[in-house]
Design a protein that fits this description.
- There is one protein chain.
- About 30% of the residues lie in helices and about 15% in strands.
- With about 325 residues, the chain is an alpha/beta fold.
- The strands form 2 sheets. The chain has a 7-stranded parallel beta sheet with strand order 7-6-5-8-9-10-11. Strands 1-2-3-4 form a 4-stranded parallel beta sheet, covered by helices on one side.
- The longest helix is centred in the C-terminal third of the chain and has 21 residues, at about 275-295.
- The chain is elongated and about 70 Å long.
Length: about 325
């Protein structure tokens, strides 16, 4: 694909002062969406149809900045327009707050805070596990996973990273490919999921995976709910196949009132708020600034978070 042609940038659906400043600070021009638009910053992660309409209305757009690291909601648009439009995501931009939340869920489940938070009387039986020296399996090797590894370092854990490539990952003791996931689960004290959601990773965790895990193991998911078979997770918690789960994402999402997962004493559930709008806005603005500068450079290089249309992330 040829480098996108520089030109006016539209910010939709509702431009903010922060994101307008990011474009102008990089030397760009913000303008309404029309036939002259060449770049588009899309701020609504829940409105792929709106982005589709915008791309139809502005056929000259050659670069689109998406608002989240996960782009599964826009997968059909990336596949449809990927031959003429360069899509960039926020992957890696929110690594710090999301990895921090993943560590909080890790420590919370190990220290049985899900049980303590529900208690209405003083417990007399000692419970809880230290993170120090444990075996941690991290699925994925993007920005969030790498930041999580950095945060884990003081705990002197043994880390196995599971990813598409077996290339070594800094901060990990070993790296294995996804087809070896089942091989590393039996020794894991904590499994943290930070993988992209694609057709190939849907329900990556199902009954077989939970059956392979230790009864004392904890599962943490801050990626996408669809990576885990929810029915299998409920069953694993209910039967004691695993000890606990810390979830910032679920399938379905939002998790409906009355869903059995709410009643599982081993589950900590947060409402997909590992990164709040207040945390995200300045981080996305910096990504917009960097990619606007690359867009204006016209050489087709320097973009951060480029989405691979074939891989889907």
């Amino acid at each position: 694909m040829a480098p996108p042609t520089a030109g006016p940038v539209a910010i939709l659906p509702e431009p903010t002062d922060l994101h307008v400043a990011a474009v102008t600070d990089a030397g760009g021009t913000v303008a309404p969406l029309d036939d002259d638009t060449r770049g588009l910053v899309w701020l609504d992660p829940r409105d792929p149809s709106g982005l589709s309409d915008a791309l139809d209305a502005a056929p000259g757009v050659g670069w689109v900045q998406l608002p989240f690291a996960g782009v599964d909601a826009f997968a059909h648009l990336i596949a449809e327009h990927g031959d003429r439009v360069l899509f960039t995501s926020a992957k890696g931009a929110y690594a710090e707050p999301v990895a921090e939340h993943a560590l909080a869920l890790t420590l919370g489940t190990l220290r049985v805070l899900q049980k303590r938070a529900r208690a209405r009387s003083w417990a007399t039986e000692p419970e809880g596990v230290s993170l120090y020296g444990r075996n941690v399996v991290v699925i994925g090797a993007g920005g969030i996973a790498l930041e999580y590894l950095r945060l884990l370092a003081p705990f002197e854990v043994s880390v196995t990273v599971v990813r598409r490539s077996s290339s070594p990952v800094e901060g990990a003791d070993r790296t294995v490919t996804t087809d070896q996931l089942d091989d590393v689960l039996p020794d894991a004290d904590v499994v943290m999921i930070a993988a992209a959601m694609t057709s190939g990773t849907s329900k990556l965790f199902g009954p077989r995976q939970f059956a392979l895990m230790r009864p004392s193991a904890r599962l943490v998911n801050i990626a996408r709910g669809g990576l885990v078979d929810t029915d299998a997770l409920v069953d694993a918690l209910r039967t004691g196949a695993i000890a606990a789960a810390g979830l910032d994402v679920t399938d379905p999402e939002p998790l409906p009132d009355g869903h059995p997962l709410w009643d599982e004493p081993g589950a900590i559930i947060t409402p997909h708020q590992a990164d709040t709008p207040e945390m995200v806005a300045p981080l996305l603005a910096e990504r917009v600034r960097l990619n606007t500068a690359a867009f204006l450079g016209g050489a087709g290089s320097g973009f951060v978070g480029v989405v691979d249309p074939a891989a889907g992330y």
